[in-house]
Amino acid sequence: MSKTTAKDVEMKDEESKTQEAPSTPKPVPLTPAEEIKANITLIERAVSTLEPRFTNRVLRGLTHSRRKVNEEILREVINDIYKDSPTGKSILGGLSGHVSESSTMEIDFTSTRSGQKPSTSAEPLPETEIYLRLLILYYIIDSVSNLPRKRSGNPENTKLSGDSEALHARAVAFGHATVERIRSLNRRSLDPISAKVWFALGRVYEIKGNLPDLRLLLLDAQRTASLRHDIETLATLINLILRSYLLTSSYDAASTFLSKAAYPDSSLISSTTPHGATTNGTLVTSTTQLLSNSTSSPTQLARYLYYVGRIRAIELSYTAAHNHLLQAVRRAPKAEQAPGFWQEVHKWLVVVELLMGDIPERGTFRHPVLRKALEGYFEIVKAVRTGSLSQFQNTLSTYSKAFNADKTYTFILRLRQNVIKTGIRRLSLAYSRISLREICVKLHLDSEEDAEYIVGKAIRDGVIEGRIVHERGWLECGSQSKGAYGVEVTDSFNRRVGFCMQLHNESVKAMRYPLNAHRKELAAAEGAREREKELAKEIQEGDIGDDSDLGDF
Amino acid sequence: MVTSQLQSLYQQLQKAFSVQPCQLNTCKNLLAQLKVGLVEAGLLVPQKEHNLDDLTISRDILEMGAIWSVRSKDVPSFDRYFSQLQTFYKDYSNVLPPSPQEFPIRGLNLIRLLTQNRIADFHITLEALPAEIIYTNPFLKHPVNLEQWLMEGSYSKVWAARNETPAEEYKYFVDSLMGTIRSEIASCEEAAYNSLPIKDACTLLFFSTRSELVTFAQQRGWEIDIMGEQVRFATKGEEKLEIPKRKLIASSLIYAKELEQIV
Predict the structure, then answer these.
(1) Mind listing the pLDDT tens digit for each residue in A262-272?
(2) From CA A548, how far away is CA B218, in angstroms rounded?
(3) A460 vs B contacts (CB less than 8 Å)
(4) Residue in B156, B247, B255 nearest the CB of A447
(5) What single DSSP character describes residue A334?
(6) Helices (H) and strands (E) in chain A, counts
(7) Apex B138 CA angle, B136 and B141, nearest 5
């Protein structure tokens, strides 16, 4: 629980860090209040130019501004912007703890609108209001999650102390009021912000570990969002719903939900992946950068891929799970910026790779962020690689607690058969003929009879080639070379080429062109054509080149 | 509310259910009446707040129904009862006192999934249960072990475990599981052996008499050499390797098209 919480926070951190760089290298750092105001100007510009890019930029800096914000700053900004208008008061109410009813707010809003129609420019936009509400919500969340940790240092802060209990209740009430407000406003330009609000509300519930209580509301909102093509919110909501299902281990429900609810821009997900491409090489960064321009945010996509990967793994469709998890790694922020998520995904990736019969790359376990978290998994990999059942069982009992906490224990249990298979394969490679008794001893199997069945199954499943000679009680190992090699190579070549093509096509699609830029180019082209014409004319007339070119001779 | 009529029916069912041997037909009639009664009382699929006693009684009735279905070898009916019980086990778990029958029935469900070879569903169901219960509760441990043995191929352990069932009802499913195992073993043998002595084939396939083996061999198309006391498996010729022309052409065309777009 604590780990996943860290993950959420870290993922957001990254967004701010990478994107903040270009927007803040100003000589004089702005005061937080000024910064928020600058952000609000950006949001207003986004609304007036119908360009959601500006809003997105503000939201990317959310974690950044969130850290600096405190009650005074918020109060100052709100007073500055709203002066004495009722909307401002209702927002401030959230800050001081008196959340007014959403219905009254609605009336407030409509009255101000109809009353001051001519001077609407004076009244701040509703987007601004929701943005401020979002900041307040985060401020309350931060104060809640900071309180108990300081006191007890207990990572599992599901039990909150008295103060934070009250704060939490305030956050819940304020969050619901904000969501209600968004619903009553119903403006498309609000969509990106509303996604963040939902995410924050999810966090509020998560702090107390009762996200499942929110599920009904989430499902409701998800329906609305998908009807309105509100991609950002839809992505956030789908993730929250999946998360709530996974928390209660309702995998069947999650799976049904997946089959019914389509994730926005699903074309990106079904992409084929090259097998064994470097997971932390340049490819990853380019993909993430590329996708930051795509419709729904890459972090939400990474999260979604991770959840789907887990669900597929439980359903035993390991190839699908592997694809999704690999994509999740690629789409996730860099390891140093999102260590929690990175570790979590890699744990699953390692297990799924093992279940598929592959051995994960050793480099994964040397990665500074992963080394410690994947310790137990590394031991398991070693056991699987050598095919030693006793080592496997030992590791399993040593790390059982960690595996249980990661919810991977049952998956690792499923690995037992893989350990046996690897063991048999190693034996079949090393010996041309080996007695069943020997196999039994070497693999620590319980009886010779079992060994015979197991070897038989291995032959049928194509793990090894060979024949059992029952009368003499031995296994004759056949040659390992397989004729089907060529087809496999073509297939994987196909997959890789497909991936590269897709990457190329996506990057082309993701390019942005400034408005009217092509005019200039056209003009330039026109000029060039003009010059060419002249040149042609001159050549035709025969008075160009000859003299000047031969002049030096 | 549970009416007095329902109450008396419930008591009759309890009596008929606990008698040894179980009166299957009486139970069937009573269950049908009780279900109608439950629907009328809104308790079959409870949605609102209900009296705790009422909920417990309806859960009891459904549990008896589930076990009755297994006893009368009616798997679809078991499926229905089980999904109706889900509401009680999941949504009312923090209100109702835990039922002693819950884990036996859950275990029965798991083993049913195994016999139907629905391994993915088996794992999904298992994953929803807390880990510490799975490995300590005898009713759940049994199907979990069976699955593990089946997957790794320790068929003799599965065979041996058929007499160690934690409850009488498991036997029905375990018996049908044996049929699945036999065909599994048979397919393994086809791949792993050229020939087998008849006697050994009997032991490997858990047949007690030779005639059983002979009929089984005929079904699978095995050759039986009476003189040499051997079972011969048809050896499959090496599969001919074909170049997937169409596929290659199609992918080359796609490459060409994509390259065209880039250049």
Answers:
(1) 787 644 444 43
(2) 98
(3) 187-188, 190-192
(4) B156
(5) P
(6) 28, 3
(7) 75
Would you call A483 an interface residue with chain B, using a CB distance cutoff of 8 Å?
A: yes
* pLDDT under 70: residue ranges of chain B: 1-4, 19-23, 42-50, 234-242
For chain B, give the percent of residues with pLDDT over 90.
0
Task: Measure CA of the first residue to CA of the last residue in chain A; give whole Å.
Answer: 84
- Token readout for B252 is 């080359």
Q: Of how many residues is chain B composed? A: 263
Mutate to test the interface with B, among A470, A495, A505, A511 (most CBs of B within 10 A): A470
Please report the pLDDT score of residue B27 as a whole number: 75
Beta bridge partners of A357: none
Per-chain mean pLDDT for chain B: 78
CATH of domain A418-477: 1.10.10.10
Q: Which residues of A touch B185 (CB under 8 A)?
A: 453, 456
pLDDT of residue A28: 58
A316 touches chain B (CB under 8 A): yes
Nearest 5°: CA angle at B140, between B134 and B141? 75
Strand order through the sheet with B223-225? B195-197, B230-232, B223-225
String of DSSP letters for B102-126: HHHHHHHHHHHHHHTT-HHHHHHHH
The residue to which tokens 């249960």 are assigned: B129
The pLDDT of residue A113 is above 50: no
Q: Which of B156, B188, B193 sits opposite A470 (nearest CB)?
A: B193
Angle, helix A215-227 to helix A162-185, in steps of 10 degrees:
20
SS3 content of chain A, % helix, strand, coil (to 5): 75, 0, 25
Indicate the residue of B194, B204, B241 with minimum beta-carbon distance to A483: B241
More confident residue, A497 or A34: A497
Q: What chain B residue is nearest to A465 in terms of C-alpha separation?
A: B192
Contact B224, B231 (CB under 8 A): yes
Q: How many H helices and E strands in chain B?
A: 13, 3
Give the chain B residue whose CA is nearest to the CA of A498: B255
Domains in chain B: ranges and CATH: 1-99 (1.25.40.990), 102-192 (1.25.40.990), 194-236 (no CATH)
Side chain identity at residue A204, one-letter code: V
Contact residues for B249 (Cβ-Cβ < 8 A; gap 6+): none
pLDDT at A306: 92
ipTM of the complex: 0.72
For chain A, which residues make up each domain, given as ranges?
2-209, 282-414, 418-477
The region that residue A101 occupies, defined by phi over 0 for left and psi between -120 and 50 for alpha, beta otherwise, is beta
Task: Give every CB contact of residue A342 below 8 A, 6+ residues apart in sequence.
Answer: A329, A332, A335, A369, A370
Q: What is the dihedral of CA B248, B252, B254, B258, to 10 degrees?
A: 160
**DSSP strand E in A60-197: where?**
none
A535/A228 Cα distance (integer angstroms): 57
Question: What CA–CA distance (Å, rounded) separates B104 from A492?
Answer: 47
Q: For residues A319-327, give the mean pLDDT.
A: 89
A·B CB contacts under 8 A: 109
